[in-house]
Specification:
The structure is a single chain. With 645 residues, the chain is an alpha/beta fold. Helices cover 47% and strands 11% of the residues. It has two domains: 409 residues, TIM Barrel; 150 residues, Rossmann fold. The strands form five sheets. The chain has a five-stranded parallel β-sheet. A five-stranded parallel β-sheet has the order 14-13-15-16-17, sandwiched between helices. Strands 4-5-7 form a three-stranded parallel β-sheet, with no helix packed on it. α14 links the parallel β10 and β11. α3 packs parallel to α16, α11 packs across α16 and α13 crosses α16. The relative contact order is 0.10. Its cofactor is adenosylcob(III)alamin.
Length: 645
């Protein structure tokens, strides 16, 4: 076919009804709803979205128009490019300055670093950083008052960007509600910085601690709005208008691995934020708040850690499609305790690849018009707004933290996420599926803690007076003050699986061989699917396998058991093979004299199970099983041997 003939080809239009009929026919009797999935936000995801749904969901036609779902600026990144704000890790101020100089030459365009890594930085060393040449973007954490003091020693009006601490989420992670003294000091410093640096955003609303405790997308949005209300109302007491407060706020989100949901989260946040601004009569540029994001540490794994590069790359892509002003990519190996030069280089370069090779900076709202994303954004913003209203009706963000209701909500979502990984309805490559038995779990050595001062002061001015060129961040630390609550506790998704592998390594280091036997019934093509499945499950727990090969009789199976002398076996075959060999096979194996545990791959019908259990069958390895519980119980077999020895 020639090029002209190809150009003239016509494809018939397909109606939604025709698609539904074809889909239902392929499902062989199952309803179309079988293709629907439910997210952690309790949003039902359909297999197909139509223009009509997207049209109903779309609130505005163009970017740069309220409700700013499509972005705060008409030209998107063409008008306002995002900042590559890679958070540099350095153990000394000298090393930080060196790394920052190299990073800025290689494409980074914001001064960003992990403040907690350099608590011994002095004012003189901080002053040597180019904070007046590039926008600042740092999470000051425990050192906000110190950083504020350092900044105020510099030239007024020069510094832009964002530098702040979310006192609410920082304290919630520690299991505290900030006391009045802590809030008063924070506000005093914010006021001083507002006068000196009008282009610097110092009220940080950081939802990362909630994200790392399991929060879903609408919870993150609603918590962000609730924290904004807290600051609106709190600063009203100091004479600030809501518009002035909004002009000084910057929001910071973590971006997880659910690509479309995370893109929709950022778009839905802008829509919900605009609604909140309307409620407070905030208009104009004050609505166009700064939004930054980091790729999630929650989704990183120590196991097969190079897969983290794919995770962070996808998350960065999602963040940029959703629209952020500052982007931080977490190094793939930071989860080990200390990132390598390779990890930092890749983290710094991912946004550059997305900008210069994927050309994301040249497209205004790349998600705009997607039937799926537009519909998802609308549903998410609606759900987030409703949840925000429940927070406010309960008394606001501090009230639900004090009552523990927010912590309960987050724990419930985290439990669901953990369970989905445990039963493998969700996959985490290299962690709960396709595990690499040859690797060891990296064990990062904890850094020695720097002793922070425990100053008790009555005003921010007292802190500022202490500052000279040799004063360090650690010296200006102020003692935490607050009331105890249930902590907003962070846990990476991979941690339960990492603990399994660490147990396996301890068993092997004691001299035991962590190996299971596969008793394979029938021909290779008959037992291979289940044998492969069991091999994959066991490798997740650090257990290797030894296969019997084709067993055509019970005698061959027993001979394999006698020769291998292992503590655990799993019988693998088709259901028909289980009927052929019958429960007598278990009895024969158990009569070899060895104290062994024998499981079966798959599940038996209820009536057959009774007989097999009577014969000594110990359990199963099957799809939908909680493999964390199963593997933990299996490791006890070898741990028992270690204890006995």
């Amino acid at each position: 076919m020639g090029i002209q003939e190809m150009k003239s080809q016509q494809f018939p239009e397909v109606t939604m009804e025709e698609w539904q009929k074809t889909a239902e026919a392929s499902l062989k009797g199952k309803p179309l709803e079988a293709l629907y999935t439910t997210t952690y936000e309790n949003i039902s995801i359909k297999p197909l979205y139509s223009p009509e749904e997207a049209e109903a969901a779309r609130a505005e036609q163009y970017p740069g128009e309220p409700a700013y779902t499509r972005g705060f600026f008409k030209g998107g990144y063409i008008q306002r490019p995002w900042k590559n704000a890679h958070s540099l890790l350095a153990d000394t101020p000298t090393r930080l300055k060196e790394k920052l100089s190299v990073a800025l030459q290689e494409g980074q365009n914001a001064v960003s670093f992990a403040v907690e890594e350099v608590p011994n930085m002095t004012l003189a060393e901080f002053s040597g950083l180019p904070v007046n040449e590039q926008p600042l973007y740092i999470n000051t954490k425990e050192h906000f008052l110190a950083i504020a003091s350092f900044l105020l020693k510099g030239e007024a009006g020069k510094t832009s960007g964002a530098a702040g601490t979310d006192l609410l989420s920082l304290y919630a992670k520690k299991g505290l509600i900030p006391g009045e003294q802590a809030l008063a000091l924070q506000i005093e410093a914010i006021e001083e910085l507002k006068e000196a640096f009008p282009e610097l955003k110092t009220i940080r609303i950081d939802t990362v601690p909630y994200h790392e405790a399991g929060a879903n997308a609408f919870q993150e949005i609603s918590i962000a709005l609730a924290e904004a209300v807290f600051w609106f109302e709190r600063l009203k007491e100091k004479g600030w208008s809501p518009e002035e407060t909004a002009e000084n706020i910057h929001f910071h989100f973590a971006i997880g691995s659910q690509f479309f949901m995370e893109t929709a989260k950022l778009r839905a946040f802008r829509k919900a934020w605009t609604a909140l601004c309307d409620a407070y009569s905030i208009t104009g540029d004050a609505v166009k708040v700064m939004v930054g994001a980091e790729t999630s540490a929650f989704t990183l794994s120590k196991l097969d850690r190079h897969v983290n590069i794919l995770r962070t790359g996808s998350e960065a892509f999602s963040a940029l499609v959703g629209g952020v002003g500052f982007l931080q990519v977490t190094p793939f190996d930071k989860v080990n305790g200390q990132s390598t030069p390779l990890g930092e280089r890749i983290a710094k370069n991912i946004p550059l690849i997305l900008k210069n090779e994927s050309h994301l900076g040249k497209v205004v709202d790349p998600a705009g018009g997607s039937y799926y994303i537009e519909t998802l954004t609308a549903e998410l913003s609606k759900t987030a707004w409703e949840h925000f209203l429940t927070i406010e009706e309960a008394g606001g963000i501090l009230s639900i933290l004090q009552a523990g209701t927010l912590q309960e909500e987050l724990a419930a979502v985290l439990e669901k996420r953990n369970k989905d990984l445990a039963v493998r309805t969700k996959s985490m490559i290299g962690t709960n599926i396709y595990a690499d038995l040859s690797e060891q779990v990296p064990s990062g050595k904890p850094k020695p803690e720097v002793l922070l001062a425990e100053n008790t002061v009555s005003s921010f001015k007292e802190i500022a007076k202490k500052v000279n060129d040799q004063t360090t961040l650690a010296e200006l630390h102020v003692k935490d003050s607050g009331s105890a609550i249930i902590p907003v506790k962070a846990q990476r998704l991979a941690e339960p699986f990492e603990r399994l592998r660490e147990r396996a390594e301890r068993i092997q280091s004691s001299g035991n061989t962590l190996e299971a036997g596969l008793i394979c019934l029938g021909k290779l093509k008959e037992f291979k699917p289940r044998a492969d499945f069991v091999t994959g499950v066991l490798s997740t727990g650090g257990i290797s396998v030894k296969s019997s090969g084709e067993c055509q009789s019970a005698e061959e199976a027993v001979q394999f058991v006698k020769e291998s002398g292992l503590a655990y076996y799993c019988i693998c075959g088709k259901d028909e093979a289980y009927e052929t060999f019958d429960p007598q096979l278990i009895e024969t194996i158990k009569q070899t004299g060895a104290a062994v545990q024998v499981d079966l791959a798959g599940r038996l019908p209820a009536e057959a199970e009774v007989e097999w259990k009577k014969s000594g069958l110990d359990g199963y390895v099957h799809a939908g099983q909680n493999i964390l519980e199963k593997l933990s119980a299996l490791l006890e077999l070898w741990e028992g041997e270690t204890t006995h020895e």
